Amino acid sequence: ARQFDQIPPFPPDTPLVPLPKVSLPELQGKGKVEARRLFEACREWGFFLLDLKNSHEGEILLQDAEKMFLLTAETFALDQSILDIYAYKPPHDLTGYKQKGKLKTDDGKTDCMELYTINQDDMLGNCP
């Protein structure tokens, strides 16, 4: 995936959590050892890394993620006047575009996060 290749590695002095890795193809093949590993990871950590390699469905998911990265770049490259048409309206509606500096952080400073939120029903085509 092109976009994933552009992400720099963590700095060497950054502490990393040793999350368990679970293989999607092993789970798809009903591997009992992998199913146990998944159960233990959820029980102990509440998290796990899902290895999508060597799985048709995993490759499709990675391709879809790549498309989302590209769509995100295209969206944020739009003129500000266009993005403002779709601005979110808290607290009534948190979907849509949020410009940097619209929220305050815990220490009272403005945030530096730009985002565009799409709700699940819109993503799945459940809205008219």
From TrEMBL:
InterPro entries: DIOX_N (IPR026992), IPNS-like_sf (IPR027443). Residues 22-121 form the Non-haem dioxygenase N-terminal domain. This is Non-haem dioxygenase N-terminal domain-containing protein. It comes from Photinus pyralis (Common eastern firefly).
